[in-house]
Every structure is written in structure tokens, then in C-alpha cells.
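Researcher: Please predict.
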Amino acid sequence: MTKTITPDLKTFVFFLSIIFVHVLQAQKGVDYKPSSEWAWGIEDSTEYFIYTPGNLELGKKYPIALYLHGCCGDSPHAIPHRAADPPVRMWHNFTENTQDIPTYIISPQTTRGWNQHFESLKKVIDFLIEKRQGDPQRIYIVGFSMGGRGLYQFISDYPDYFAAAVPIGMSFFNGDFDKIKDIPIWANQGELDRWAREMPKFVRETRALNGLDLDSAWQWVTGVNPKYTSFEGMGHIVQWETASQDITEWAYSKINDGNKYPQVHFVSPAYREKAKEGKNFNVEVDARDPDGEITKVDLFVNRQFHSSLTTAPFKAKIKPELGDNVLEAVAYDAKGKSTTATTVIAVDTKPQISINTLPYGRVGAYYEHWLPAIGNGVLSFAAAELPKGLQLLNDGCLRGIPVEVGMVSVKVTITDEDGDVSDSVIKIEIKEKRNGEVLVTEANDLNGNQLVISKAVYGETPNFNCEKVPTSAIEHISFSDLDEFYGLSLVKSEESDTTLSDQTYMTFTVSEPVEVLVGYEVKDNMHSSGIPDWLNDFKRIEKAEITAQIRYYGIFSKKYPKGEISLPGADKNGNGVSTNYFVMLRAVDFNNEPEINMDILPSGGKGKYYTSKLTSLYGNGKLNWEVISGDLPNGLQLELNGSMVGTPQSSGQYSFIVEATDERGQADQAEIQLEIK
């Protein structure tokens, strides 16, 4: 049966005009500098930017990713900004400009609408397939807003052409759902987005065509096309949030070889259905193949293989454990293609922290640690009397810059999704400041408002927004290239401040004589910018530039004695920049070598999935971890990023030595204890 939705044309045009204003505001001041792999191109009247990987091997075929931008464009000419949107940059790991799987990326330009460009864009893709090394079985399309509408129309016009599609923030579509129901789709929207208000209906109706008719577009449905994400509390602009998911990993798993993917879902249990610990629980899975038959369904419980089901109806019995039990059903067709459905069975348990002593911190050193806890569903954390300078976020991330030495006992209150509440007391020791460390205190703006003190590290933001609730999520404008300045003490300004350069904007106190390094935005590609007069008293460091994703900052240096320091306003409007400056502080003998700050991991259980993470203070850039002596429990492995994951197969006390090495080759070692019960 064909399902269609036809919006009122006048309403749609009105929506587009409003979207245009919102998108322009979001893009204001972008002066992106694409890497050398990007080049301008034109096909008929369609201009585009194309990314060609530099590490292609002769004889191999590589994926192609197409991105359709949102409304609108004031020119039909493609400019570097077309390569700046997060759903474009995610295909080369954003500013890292690396690709685990070399991929062609096409980012075209339009002024309004995409239908008139379909033939030209198909010519570009076909050229990559016929004359270059493009893979016809791995063509992926992403579209935002107006581009999301264009995406739906493109895949409807060419339903056998694309391997996967990712629409973002747009739901107007007057095509045939039967045509697109078998194309793997991951639909994304902001919860509050009016222009995507029909997307849940699209998802629900397409799923119904694929054998699952539910009353809502539930996000926990993963095995029936389309996959769906709604970002809580967000509006229309959700490109960064979408791109921050594992979109590319999901897309790369989809191959358009003519064989359609199976559809699979749990008939029983219902999502988050209650169960009793250790009691038999009936599980039933529905699996079907649109162009063949299901050969088996593999069932996993808490990431452990449970059984292989080969006859419909696909049923099994399991014995749930305390807490949330994650069930996965992997359905295979006769040609080996598979789709995975996931659900959760909840056995009620009070939330609890699985360790009573946290890794230590140091005065002036950046601290970040996730409290290891179990419970039902999403856990919320709160604490009183934290070490001064530290903050516990709602999601359990403890972070900040400690300012006082001492051993502190902290009462942590955890609330789970069922409303269960528990209190735990954990201890954390704050040690003396490292030699050469700069302790920054009493940072305030001209109105006495407290400024944020942090460290210049990857993922941190140059500025803050006083209206936003602090979050552990990495934001769009975040440090991505810090070079020699990595790890320095950081004073973040309020991003929207408009203080003029003849007024004092910020004051702060430093514990050491320091080199004050002001990061001031530079526009020198498609736009231009200036600096306030007071920065002329500083020395600009030649060839030094810090990148925060799509923004670039020149670095200006001046030495100050210890004590109070005052700096004037940025006058960002008068100098043509998008945001306020930030300040870094560097002492002469600053030492940023890694320091592993833990010697024990939370305990685990034999035969139960385990995950934890090793941590370190300091270190330049990303740390690589390895075990250099001793043995891990069989079934566990230490990943490069410090995560300890797996399912231990034996119990006992284990001791091993790990080494953490930073991007400069600096390393530290520590002996780690782990108990498996």
C-alpha cells in the first residue's frame, strides 16, 4: 500500500523562509578553510566541492558520500563554507582529516530546492564510479532541512541507487513510501523542531510497511527500518548532534548489492519490561526477509551469546540478572546479510556506585572521571561538598580544576529511571600542585559574574554560554588543534559578550609569573577581521594558530607577574569576529607529562560484561594505553583509549602494569589492581 503526505504549498514556503533565517544565524561568520583534499567542481549548472582521499589503492573501490545542505543559499556558487557543515566533516573525522575508510565526499550548492540538481549530481557520482574508484554499492546520502526534503525525493526517484540515507530535520515528502522502505534510513530531528513534526509519522508508517505497526516512532526500535533519533530539548539545528553519533559506522555497514536487509524486532519482552532476577523469562523475536528467508536469529544477553534460533516463531528462555539486561537479536538472511534488534529487560535494583575511592586529583590539574554506577535506566547524579573547583554533572561526570589540598568525603545521591534513590559516600584525595602549574582563581567579568576556569584540551570550548546548563557532550565549537598550547590553564569568556576595548572585561589571579596568551579569532580566508587596540601591546606568535573546529584563533603573548591581571573587552562586533576571546596561562617550567592517577579499578563479576576506564592527569593530546607486564583476566582487553572491556572468564585478584603515552612520546606507568568476583 502506498503512503503519501502532501503539505500545503503556502505553508511549506512560509516554513522555508523561517528556516532560512535560522540557518543563516547558525552559519554567521563561518570562514572555514578546507584541507587540500577538497576541490571545486561544476556539472552543468551545479557547483560543488569534492573531497578526494589521498590514500587510494589501485584496483580498489571506495564509498561516496553526498550531502545536501539546508535552506538556503544567496548564490549558486559553491564556496569553502559548503564543506564546513558537521554532516560533511564527519566523513573525514572532522578537523582530524583522517579516514579509516577512504571516502569521496560531495557537497554541492543550491539557492533553493534540490530537484533541479539530481541529474547533475548523479552524473558526478557516476563519473567517480566509471572513471575513478567510486563504489556503486556504497553510495550514501545525508540531507539537512531543505536538503532532508531533497534527500527523500532523491532516494524516491532512484530507490536502487543508494546504500543508506540520513535525513536530518525535515519531513515534507510527497513520494511513495513503498519505494524507499527497503533503503536503510536513519532519520534525525530535534524534539522541538516544528519543521520535522511529521517525521515520527514517516518513521511509523514506513515501519508499518516493514512489518512493525506501533503507536509511536519509538527510538528504541533498532531492527526495523527506519532507525530514528529525536534529540531531547533541541530545535531545528541538530547537524552537530547528528554527526556526533556513530552515523558513519552505521552507514559503512550498509551495502547496496541488490539483496535487501532483514527486518527484526522483539515481540516479547516489551521495551524495559520488568522481570525477576534468575527467573525464566520468555523471549520471542519476529524476523522476516523482504526478498528471501531468514536462516537464523542469534540471541545475545548482556553481550554474551545465548542461543541460535533457526525455526519461526523464534523463541527462547533467559534468566535475567539484577539491573538492566540488554538483549540483542541478530537476524540473518540466506545470503548472509544481517540486522540487529535491541531491547532491555529491567530487574529492579537500587542504583549504586561500584567503588568507594576515586582517582586522586592535583591542585591546578584538570580532573575528569565518570562515576562508575549501576541501576535501572538513565541515572542522575547530585552531590554536596565537593572539593572546591570540581563539579558533578547530572550524568555522573566529575570534572574541574581542584584548588585546595585534602582528602574529601563526598555524599553522592543517585536517582534511576524508576525513581529509586540511593546515597553513597566516596572519597577523593587532592594532592599538591605540580611544579610549574599555574593556579587561576577569582576569575570574574566586569559585572562580577564568575568566568569558567579550565584547561586547553581537546573537546573543551574556547568560551561558555551563561544560559546553557553544563554538559559532558562535546560541543560544535570545541578545541580540535592546540599544538604547543595543549594542557595550559584556560580562562573562558562569555561567548556573546560585547564589551568594548576601552572597558575592563575580565580580572583573574594567578599563582605564578605567567605568559598570558590571548586567543583572538582570525578571519582571513573568505572574510576579514581586525583586533582591538590593546592587543597591539601583545606580541603575536608567528605561525601559531589554534583551531576550534571551524574557527581559527591567532595567539597574542605578553608576560605578567603573579597576582591579579585585568584585560579589556574584545569589541567583537567592531572587529568583525564571531565570538569573544579566551586566555591561556603558561609558566616557564610548565610540565605536561602524563600522570596515571589511579591504582585500582572497580571490581567485576565472572561471566558478566565489564567496562571501566583508566585515567591520567596531564598528558599532551590523546593518550595511548597498553599493558606492559602482568596478565589481564581472560576475556578482558585494554583498548588504546584506556577502556577496559570484555567478559572475564575467571575470578580472582589481578595485578598488571599499564603505560600511558601521549602525542609527544611522554609516558607514565602504574600498577593496577582488579578483582573479579
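Model: The helical segments are 9-27, 86-89, 118-131, 146-157, 177-180, 199-209, 239-243, 247-252.
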